[in-house]
């Protein structure tokens, strides 16, 4: 299988080299100028051409043929290899093939846009009052080149305009038959001018997933063009045509793709034939009622059909796989196969049957190997012995939990390591709504309708008194557009992002402004009038099967930062979401600048899946976050997920749109990557929680397969992960300076979104131990999700939004011990603390609770366990969300400040911002947004002081 994958990669590399060579030809194709008599002229506009549709269609056709052939060949090859490995290994191989084809398709798409950018659509000659002649060349795909000409021929190595036109070396290509020209003599005189280029300006609009910087980088080389560059262009290239280049691309694609297809079908046929032969041989030799014998070759009858499957595979290995792998020298494949079989059985049986099964497998494989080849006996013997030892040492987690863990937990006190409350923290009774729905007080149907307008309103109506010290910008992001045409998104996180800014100035002068986050995704949806590109949980509405198939290989371009606002490099505002790129915008005018251009080694190895909430150090301004990177191992082509912990220092470029350098802190390999919504910082450590909620590969692939077959993509964000309570929750303590993983703690499983705070203190009998405390809002299981369409229809059967239990984990760095204490009577979420106590011991926190079906703003005292609520709230109609704490300047009191929250008035649909005294939770002011203006359910926000 490794050789097959290597062959596939080599084929793609060959195709890549051919297309790269072709790409350089396309960039440098020249054209000849002739005096044709069937053209005429205008003084200002010298040349106006039609868009070159024919070459574009030829290129699309070549790309389509190449992708379909390579995808079909690789898919059939990996399907043919399925009998050689477990189904999961096959799925990983197929995923690797899809990734390879995806990158090949993306490379050919870039060639397509290279071809488009070569065509001149318009040429214009202007002359200013001083006699300076400027030639403006507008090419397809948004490329513009302005050439200011000199009066004389250029000296030295600088080319003249005539050199560029006659010898090529530029993206200019004029097909006179495609346009209209007036006065050919003036055109030819201009194009054959010996004048040099005094000054040159090149601009390019980004296409596909490009940024503006990448687009400019592509065309920047033409500003440095010299005569030597032009002389290096081969004569045969000058004689070629763009159409000939497209034919070369199509022929290369057909050869590579056809080879993949034929080879894949042959392997498929061979694999199917060998599987049938192995099953027949196993059926003849298998004895259903055989008993376990240490020296015999019959399987133990302890697992029913599982043993039948294992026996069939082992019989097959003795008769077919071992000789084949011996011939191909694939010892690693056999070891991997044996290890996988032991692992699969280990999860299904208890300890003693597992040991016997491991012993029998080792004996059987050693005998089978010896009977086929003396060379294979030692290698397989070592592999079988290693798996048998692993079976003895690593007991089944399921078996251990079923037999011994419950009795052990009953003997231990609740304050011991990994002790947690068994109380269901989200015990909400969904009984008050019509027809059994949970609609006690939250009107999801209207709260989740799309926003339609952008506003900028000064002089907002203010009730009450805003504290004189409260000055700045409250900025939120949130999903606000949930449908395009007749298409509706599947999950709330797919809604297109909108930014909301409330500016609080002096003397109670307040301004409201909202703007769409101008992303590539949103533009594509809007222009198509439907869901046109992939979102986190939604797919385009494509009626044709082949269109959906081709779309599987299109490059993802996740631009939809709709959940969190943060500041990077001290002052640059960014908006982020789950799996989205980091998008920058300007605070003053709310204009979107695009993706943050990260320029470092972290871009290698695959895209980073960002998480929603980064953490900013209150003292240093360091911006710290964690992401998942799905790397493809070059050794075995397996998927190697990693957590990547990194930061951005505050001294990086503060210029909006400038490249940003990240500092890699730690890479953590994991077999079960799960989402990390946020992290915590202490003075010395980064605290990261890995919950037993790994990515559900089968669920994601099945959803893609259903969409491919019938065009319907269903589910929500919860379907992308699987809750596995048999696994522990892991808390990792990482040194912020060295990146060393100082200590790792395991606790009973819990789910979380938000960390309240983490801090260090001295502990232990002598007070010399280092204790890291972590306050987390914990759930015993993931909250129940519901599809967006169901929520917008008002049919929500069970919404567990009441919050989780506050638990404090005290972790001893030296001894590795961890104790947990809970606060089961107080269930809340969306916690906020005073930023002044971030990373040190805190006393208070603020958040949101579900109080009998309505959301309430609360304050918690973590020492006395007292709780205060916003008592002035009309709970029958007012719905607050996502509080933001603003500390009072020059005050050392932890609870001195203000709580800001957008509040929805449900009967009218209007929104206002409430200002609460964070010490007493008494209402100080209400800032009313324009009447009738709809603000949908939004994400996290931040308060940026000053600037007003």
Quick structural summary:
Helix content is 31%, strand content 26%. The protein is α+β, with helices and mostly antiparallel strands and 948 residues long.
Describe this structure in words.
- The protein has 948 residues and is of the alpha+beta class.
- It has 3 domains: 2-245, no CATH class; 290-400, no CATH class; 434-945.
- Helix content is 31%, strand content 26%.
- The strands form 8 sheets. Strands 27-28-29-30-31-32-33 form a 7-stranded antiparallel sheet, with no helix packed on it.
- β32 and β33 (867-869) form a beta hairpin.
- α1 packs parallel to α3 (87-117), α11 packs parallel to α13 and α12 (351-372) packs antiparallel against α13.
Mean pLDDT: 70
Radius of gyration from the CA trace? 33 Å
Number of domains: 3
Tell me roughly what share of residues is in helical segments.
25-40%
Q: How far is the first residue's CA from the last residue's CA?
A: 64 Å
Number of strands: 38
| Assembly state of the chains shown | single chain
Largest sheet: 7 strands, antiparallel
Proportion of beta-strand residues: 25-35%
How many helices in DSSP terms? 19
Question: For the largest beta sheet, what order do the strands appear in spatially?
Answer: 27-28-29-30-31-32-33
Shape descriptor = globular
Kindly name the structural category.
alpha+beta
Spans of at least 5 consecutive residues whose pLDDT stays below 50 are 1-45, 83-87, 233-242, 278-318, 325-440
Protein name: Bco2 protein
Transmembrane segments: 88-108
Region (Disordered): 395-432
Biased composition (Basic and acidic residues): 402-411
